[in-house]
Amino acid sequence: MTYEPVIGLEVHAELLTQSKMFCGCAVVDSTAALPNTVVCPVCAGMPGTLPVINAKALDFAMRVALALNCTIPELNVFARKNYFYPDLPKGYQISQYELPLAVNGYLDIETSIGPKRIRVRRVHLEEDTGKLFHHAPHDGANEHSVVDLNRAGVPLLEIVTEPDMASVEEVKAYATRLRAVLRYLGVNSGDMEKGVIRFEANISVRPTGTDELRPRTEVKNLNSFRAMERATLYEIERQSQVWERGDTVAQQTMGWNEAEGVTVAQRGKEHAHDYRYFPEPDLPPLLVDRAHVDATRAALPELPVAKRARLENDYGLSRYDADLLVEDPALADYFEQAVRAQPTRNPKAIANWMTGELFRLMHETHTEFNAVKVTPAHLAALTELVAGSTINLNTAKTVFEEMFNSGQAPGEIVTAKGLAQVSDTTALEALVDETLAANPGQVETFLKGKDTIEQWFFGQVMKQSKGRGNPQVIRQILNTKLQALKNRA
Known about the structure:
By secondary structure, the chain is α+β, with helices and mostly antiparallel strands. The protein is built from 15 helices and 15 strands. Strand 5 (102-111) and strand 6 (114-127) form a beta hairpin.
């Protein structure tokens, strides 16, 4: 029997507010700040403390809800979600359940077999937990765990889909598109390595072609696309094997062991009643003003799909190039600034340099885009030097690498290093003559009918010119000289 997966995603995204969800503590980089240095009685869960809703977090959450085509009810309520875990200092989490901020949205994705709409069940606000660190026995110390509460209370947005995804491809397409939307809205950095956006996949399998819903597992805290893909594939295969041998999949929460490439059972999958949700008594119901919702909708920025369509239509980019550039709003803005700075208006050249040499050097040097030293104006200037035959493409790559390392303008580098392209026909003709005279054996081979050796001669002349010779001029001179020799033979 064959099986097909049924997958839904829960996405937890920390919001880029300056303070925490229910107190005035600053939001800091939990991977860099000293542990337990940004904690107050409220986020530490001390008795008698009172929470206050972060208005900016509410605004950010509304942006996301509207971008995901959700309905925002006029009334929503915060609730206590009760469970006991060492990184949850109060013993409960302030979240939302029966009356969340937003419901019934969708996000359209694209797959190899066409577009698909993924329904969004709910978008709600809550507070993040602290972070546990587990230490193996060493230096005489026993195995132990410690907790950092800097992250406790950070505004967290949970986005829950319906079980609409039927392949790992769809899961990745949804997660990638959602991450881009969050970045365009300016509400989340998308930095998965720092855990500011985390995915949890709810996975089940069923006999192919049926509409049965079988027990599911939830794979928690997947903080990279690679981990999400590998864990989902593994769990689909594992569950298929369980059903195939006549057993039943246990509904439980799983962790992903990246090193071993397996899912690991953590605990039985809870149901809503296990959390004993009840309205948070210290927070009043939240009434959402319709005028505020309308104003938020009107202020939404251009989102990735709309920007991609505009880049294709306005600049003639391919779907592939446009997809790469709209993945990060800063990339798309950089591209448009460079095109505006380019007198000859050659958007394709700008896109090629960005998706080619720029991405290559960023990858090789592990450089984040916000640390790139090449300005849009300097990239535009480099393409103009190539278009005007001041330098050839190979030299331009050398210049670009220097620009990447130093931030210098391309014209300054070309002048300082004497890299300007040689187009003088007299000088290049002399190099061609020298090359032919120095290689009589290869000339004889050409005259005997091996035309492909002309490319070898071209490479020798380019080497003689130290890469600065104008390729078009060299090819023209070389072809003329060789044909003259052939005609005399």
